[in-house]
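Page 42, continued from yesterday. The earlier attempt failed because a stray header line got pasted into the input along with the sequence. Redoing it now with the clean sequence only.
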Amino acid sequence: MKIPGKIAIFGGGTWATALAKIVLTRETHINWYMRRPDQIEDFIKVGHNPSYLSNVPFNLDRITFYSDINEMVKNSDTIILAVPSPFLKSHLDKLTVSLKDKFIISAIKGIIPPENLVVTDYLAQYQGIPVENIAIVGGPCHAEEIALERLTYPTIACPDRSKAAVVADVFNNRFVKASTSVDVIGIELAAVLKNVYAIAAGVCHGLKYGDNFQAVLVSNAVSEMERFVKAVSPINRNINESAYMGDLLVTCYSSFSRNRTFGSMIGKGYSVKAAQIEMEMIAEGYYGVKCIMEMNESYNVDMPIADTVYNILYEKAPARAEIKRLREILK
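This time it went through. Structure tokens are written below.
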């Protein structure tokens, strides 16, 4: 196995496109897997992703596109996963070649249903990849800001910190400053939870709650995140670091946050289905909150904000009434 060797981007969306831009600032060539051949054809015609971050141009001579997942895997050493978590399994089910001798970087900020496993655990248990050969990308790093080359601070986490450092070096450039960590599970769970809390923040925005209440909501979300992550993975960590709280803050407050946008639409009176249709993009928190609630049946952590989001999205509880109940609990 080579790290990084030949790097492949796995996915055709906004985040995958931003990651391709980052990697190509340091690497001379990448492989790029997209499920739909027509998307590849359109990409080649116009010189950029026709559907996402279309303002980012690419030199096509530096990219080999694949719509065949097995051919991509055969010809790659390091694979960066950037597809929505609910769809990862359907992609991997097409594999006839093994991932065991590859280095995998998950940039997926979600949980795999219905197993309710973080991506690294799923890859280890179901794909047989050694945990030391799996890394994740965490921290506040909106794709839209990467496209604009605004300064971004991702965290690369891997049980083997030396391998995390190699990956971080691939990411580092004039607008990306990557750090390393060994807290893989903690950062993965924080990345799932911040999407849930961003939906809550969006709901409150849609209901016209002000900045004062939003500050209280988010500060309580930090504590709730810490309780849950500690229950699942009880190691020493500083929840105030950018990989945890930084990611939470940007997702709750940024206009680029699709989870906040989704929640805001719910707060304004959209149904869940109507909001999903109008957005035309995946809000990971919708799937994440169900997985977190099912996981929490084993841990029994006090999670009033996540409970509230679940009730609104899955129990069809009125958003205004649920937030009114929540505001009496928060401190």
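Notes: The chain has a mean pLDDT of 96.
Reminder to self: strip header lines before submitting.
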